[in-house]
Write a structure and sequence with these properties.
This protein has 10 helices and 12 strands. It is α/β, with parallel strands linked by helices and 359 residues long. The chain has 2 domains: 232 residues, Rossmann fold (3-Layer(aba) Sandwich), CATH 3.40.50.11970; 101 residues, no CATH class. Strands 4-3-2-1-5-6-7-8-11 form a 9-stranded mixed sheet, with helices on both faces. Strands 9-10-12 form a 3-stranded antiparallel sheet. Strand 3 and strand 4 form a beta hairpin. The protein is elongated. The two termini are 42 Å apart.
Length: 359
C-alpha cells in the first residue's frame, strides 16, 4: 500500500486529457489535521479494495493543515494502488477555494453521470464558527450542481456530529441524500470499500437510495461489536422542506404559548422535554436528538391544562406532524446501545434558535 503521508512515496501519473465519461464518480475530500492524518492510509487501504474501474472513478483530494504545512494532493485510487495526479500544491484544506478546486478537478477530469461527495476530517457539529462554514459548503455544492446541471446524488460526512437539521437544510438544495452521524464517527469504520462496490454497480436498478441504505447497514455491522455509542443515518433531502414546515408550525405555536398567561408551565414542560436525563444528547450537551425531543413534547403536553385549549390542541397536531415529517426524511438509521432513542437527526436545543436560518 502507498503511504500518502510520505510525499516521496507517491507514484505520479499526471492526467493530461480528461477521462472518458463514466457512470459514477466518488470524491473524498480529506482534511488532514494533526489528529486525523493516520486515518488517511486506512481510508486509502479501504478504497483500494474496490478502486476505479470502467464504471466508476474513485478519487481523494487531500489537504493537510498541520505542523508540516499546507499541502494538497489530488489522488486517483485504483484496485490495490493509488497514484497522484499533478504536483503537491500549497493549499489549506480549510480554505473554501480548496474545496472548489477539488470539485473542479473531479468534474472536469473525471466526468460522470452520478456523483457521491464525501467530506472526511474531524468536526464538532454544524459548520459554523470555523474557517470553513455552511456558506462555504453551499458554494462548493452549488458549483457542482451548476456545472453538472443536476443535483449531487449523495453528500456524506465522515465527520463527527453532522447529522443535524442545520446541515440537512444547508445541503438539501444541492443533493438528493445526506449520510452523517449524530454522534462521533468511529475512526476507521466508514464503509468506503462497500460504497465503491455499490457505486460501481450504479444503474437504474441500483440507485442512490440503495447505496445510502446499505452504507448505514455496513457501518452498523462494523461498529456494533466494537462501540456502543455510534449512530449513522441516511436522509432523503427532498423531504427536509416538509420537516422545516412542520417544525416552524410547532415552534410558532410554542412561541405563542410562551407569551400567554400559561408561560410558566410551558417553560417547565419544555425544560422537562429537553432534560438530558430524559432526552438523548450527543457529545455536546446542546445537540439533542430531534425525534426523542418531539416524543417527549408529545408526552409532556398531552395532559396539560392551559387557558387556550384550542392552541394546545393545534400544538399537539403540529408535534405529530413534525414527528411524521422526521420519519419521512430518514431512509435508514443505525444506533448503538448507548443511543437507543436516536432517530436520525439532531438539533440545537434552543427553540428560539432557528436551525434552518441561512447564515
Amino acid at each position: 500500500m502507498v503511504l500518502v503521508t510520505q510525499a516521496s512515496s507517491l507514484p505520479r501519473n499526471d492526467i493530461i486529457e480528461p477521462y472518458l465519461k463514466k457512470p459514477t464518480t466518488v470524491l473524498v475530500y480529506f482534511v488532514e489535521t494533526k489528529n486525523s492524518a493516520r486515518y488517511l492510509d486506512s481510508l486509502l487501504h479501504e478504497m483500494q479494495k474496490n478502486g476505479s474501474n470502467e464504471n466508476m472513478n474513485a478519487l481523494v483530494y487531500t489537504a493537510s493543515t498541520n505542523a508540516l504545512g499546507t499541502v494538497a494532493r489530488a489522488l486517483v485510487v485504483e484496485r490495490g494502488q493509488t497514484f497522484q495526479d499533478g504536483k503537491d500544491v500549497n493549499k489549506d484544506g480549510r480554505w473554501p477555494q480548496t474545496v472548489l478546486d477539488a470539485c473542479v478537478w473531479a468534474h472536469e477530469t473525471f466526468p460522470s453521470d452520478n456523483f457521491v461527495f464525501f467530506f472526511c476530517s474531524h468536526g464538532s457539529g454544524p459548520l459554523t464558527g470555523t474557517s470553513f462554514n455552511e456558506q462555504d459548503l453551499r458554494e462548493a455544492l452549488d458549483y457542482l450542481v451548476n456545472v453538472r446541471n443536476k443535483p449531487i446524488d449523495v453528500v456524506a460526512f465522515d465527520v463527527d456530529l453532522m447529522a443535524t437539521v442545520e446541515v440537512a437544510y444547508a445541503v438539501q438544495p444541492y443533493a438528493n441524500y445526506l449520510v452523517a452521524s449524530e454522534a462521533l464517527i468511529l475512526g476507521d469504520r466508514f464503509p468506503y470499500a462497500s460504497v465503491l462496490k455499490y457505486a460501481a454497480k450504479w444503474r437504474s436498478y441500483f440507485s442512490a437510495y440503495k447505496i445510502v441504505f446499505d452504507m448505514v447497514k455496513e457501518y452498523e455491522n462494523g461498529c456494533e461489536e466494537i462501540i456502543a455509542g455510534y449512530t449513522l443515518s441516511a436522509i432523503d433531502l427532498s423531504k427536509v422542506v416538509n420537516l422545516y414546515n412542520a417544525l416552524t408550525a410547532t415552534t410558532n405555536r410554542l412561541r405563542y404559548l410562551l407569551s400567554s398567561q400559561d408561560k410558566t408551565i410551558i417553560y417547565q414542560k419544555l425544560g422537562e422535554s429537553g432534560n438530558p436525563d430524559e432526552c438523548t444528547y450527543f457529545a455536546q450537551t446542546n445537540y439533542a436528538d430531534l425525534g426523542h425531543f418531539l416524543n417527549n413534547l408529545s408526552v409532556n403536553f398531552a395532559r396539560l391544562r392551559v387557558a387556550n385549549t384550542q392552541i394546545l390542541t393545534q400544538l399537539m397536531k403540529d408535534i405529530l406532524g413534525a414527528r411524521r415529517a422526521l420519519s419521512g426524511c430518514v431512509v435508514a438509521c443505525a444506533q448503538g446501545e448507548d443511543h437507543p432513542n436516536a432517530n436520525g437527526l439532531a438539533f440545537k436545543y434552543d427553540f428560539f434558535h432557528d436551525p434552518f436560518r441561512r447564515t
